[in-house]
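Per reviewer request, we include the raw input and output of the structure prediction for the construct analysed in the revised manuscript.
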Amino acid sequence: MVTVIIPTKNEAEGIRKVIEEIEEVGIPPERIIVVDGHSSDGTADIAKDLGARVYIQRGTGKADSVKLGLRHVETKYAVVMDGDATYPAKFIPSLVERAEEEGCGLVLGARKVGRDKIGIINRFGNWVINKLFSLYFGANLSDILTGMYLINVSRLKSTIFEMSGFSIEAEIVSHFVSMGEIVCELPIEYKERIGKKKLKVWHGFLIARDIVRLAWRYSPVSFILLLSALLLIPGLVLGVYVAYYYFFLDINYYVKGIAAITMTSSGFIALILGILTLYLKRMEIRLKKMIESLESMISDSK
């Protein structure tokens, strides 16, 4: 029912523990896929010795690794998890159970216990990115960048992967949310990393940039309108400037005043229209869910 994908690069210190923990929850080695990014420390050899299916990726980065692993999955579900032993394999059955019970297309392992093991800068970056994502996509999710999540593979086939590196998680979540699929979260534990840390602070800026790109992909009209709403800022600043000189110094700036009114009103209208288009997009998603639910009920009644 489930295959585990482990993207790795130089994880010789942790990969044995990860694979052994996965086997302890009843998943055989042939359903453990290790996609190695040209490790120089023998990670791939250790995984092979333990019976896992090992593939060497042609490209580089985590996104390329996950995409390659998904192409080799033959089960209904795939669990993606890091190879550094930070995510306990004991939660895999719970992820599958949640997907089966609630019909989730995607189940995120939300890191609720052990968050102190995430650096304070990374924690703040995660919070900002989660808020940015929730604001635009309307998804009340707490950990879209988790390194452990379950995917209903059949519901991901229509995805055109464009992002690279550590942005793969944000891309997968945005696809499921935008397609009206059910995205669930399961509280899990986060453990101390074994081996050298790979996620740097600057990766957070790249992920934030890619979320903006995803916003453009899935709802370009609202993206343009909300971007245009930034005219409010210079419009209001210029308006305050003109008002100060008019009321306190008795100096009239007619052209600047007209420019301030034009920018402020344009920005305000763009903001209102941008919010409306976001709500229309969310309404579209709800209608899609309702139609699918009705189709399922009709199919079951026959």
